[in-house]
Amino acid sequence: MESATLSRGFNRGLGTLTAGGLALAIAESAKNLGEMEEVIIVVSTFTVGFCTTLAKQHPKMKPYEYGFRVFLLTFGYVMVSGYSTGKFTDTAVNRFVFIALGAAVSLGINIGIYPIWAGEDLHNLVAKNFAGVANSLEGCVDEYLKCMEYERISSRILLYQPSDDPLYSGYRAAVEASAQEQTLLDDAIWEPPHGPYKMMSYPWKSFTKVGGALRHCSFTAMALHGCILSEIQAPPESRKVFSSEIHKVGRECAKVLRELGNNVKTMTKLSSSDILFEVHLAAEELQKKIDERSYLLVNTEAWHTSKRAEGIKDAMNATLITGRENKNEALEPTIADQTLAYHYKTFAASSFRSRYDSSSTIDGYKKLPHWPARTTFHPNLPLEDMESKTYQSASALSLATFSSLLIEFVARLQNVVYAFEELSDKANFKEPVEEPVAVSKGDGGFVAKMCKLVGLRS
To answer: What are the distances in angstroms from CA 309 to CA 297, 306, 314, 345, 389?
Structure first.
């Protein structure tokens, strides 16, 4: 890459010149000390090596780490070789000539013949990750609503290793891009204006900010995928109640991610000032549905015999009656009343709990007992009261977990939009091209207007 060539070339040249000059100065000074020459050379070699190694550990010196390395090698080479031959000046000059020749060849090939720009790679990497996170998010939502069952979960996913699962590979690429983005950023800041990046001091750091905001969203996508891989699953009938709202939120979020990714790729500003309007509307509908059907997200059977629950019911009813009387509205059934009428169906968990039954070990890892380990769930066998209620409560809460994570994704998506707007302003992205407005045919269109003009039509 040109930027890496320029960066390393600068560090190598600076390190060679400073090391050669310092070595010559010490060598010439040591010659005037007679018998102390050997001692001065040895002591200076160890002292310079110690100070150089210590200095390059400082965080602010990280961009010049290669230069420190070349400085140390050049100083040691000139001091040792020059002392052996007695020609310190010739050794230093030969070292500099070889460094200059290598730099000229590298610059000529990497810039004049086959240029590869780190900034362009950083740009493409950030734009590509948008599509990956969008596909993972949409896939997680679709598979969750389909009540997808994994016959066997790959241990590669459990240990965060590369896997063929498309839901996993999409967000994983965005999560792991941090180190690569930082490496490309360190090289890109050395690049001169080129191609579509014609601005001096191009805001490459803003690309990494966009990537960081997208990575913040990808962590939520990872958690959503974890809900699908979870041992504790919500019953399908409960998922169907919220399916339309959940699906809409996932679809709108993925749509925004793809649009942002395309805008980053084409270096175009947003066409709409409120790109998240539909996303926020869908999230509000989901939250409203959760509020209305919150009794589906907990095990409400324990409420019926609990005095505390009766007190909560009375308080809820009194609050609702007071509020509705003030607004002169008709009294509707309360959530507590709906809870009493709702009969929770028994959820057959055996299909979800048999995903590891195909083998006792997974890629060499011992299979762990299922939770709760004392209870066997089977659709044809009666369930024990305490264990079954515990599992049913947890399974109902898993739906609340998935829904809340989806709403959290919407909240984090706002940070991505902010980061993109900052990038588009600093990098002077081009304005979006407005599509031509279709000609209205309410008055008969162009032909009707011409007929009216010549008097053929009143």
So the answer is: 16, 5, 9, 21, 17
Give 244's pLDDT tier (boundaries 50, 70, 90): very high
What domains are defined for the chain?
A: 1-113 (no CATH), 118-299+395-427 (1.20.58)
pLDDT digits (tens, 9 = 90+) for 160-199: 666 677 788 888 899 989 989 998 898 888 788 888 888 8
Sequence-ordered list of residues with C-beta below 8 angstroms from that of 122, at least 6 positions apart, any chain:
181, 184, 185, 188, 204, 207, 208
Cβ neighbour number for residue 406 with a 10 Å cutoff: 27
Rg from Cα positions in the chain: 34
3-state secondary structure of 443: coil
Rounded to two decimals, the pTM is 0.66
- Using CA of residue 282, residue 283, residue 284, residue 290, what is the dihedral sign? positive
Per-residue model confidence as pLDDT tens digits over 59-89 = 888 778 888 888 888 888 888 887 777 777 8
User: Which residue type occupies 37?
Assistant: E
Give dist(CA 400, CA 394) in Å, integer.
Answer: 10
CA distance 353 to 356: 8
Sign of the CA dihedral with 27 first, then 31, 36, and 38 last: positive
| Ramachandran quadrant class, 234 (left: phi over 0; alpha: psi -120 to 50; beta: rest) | beta
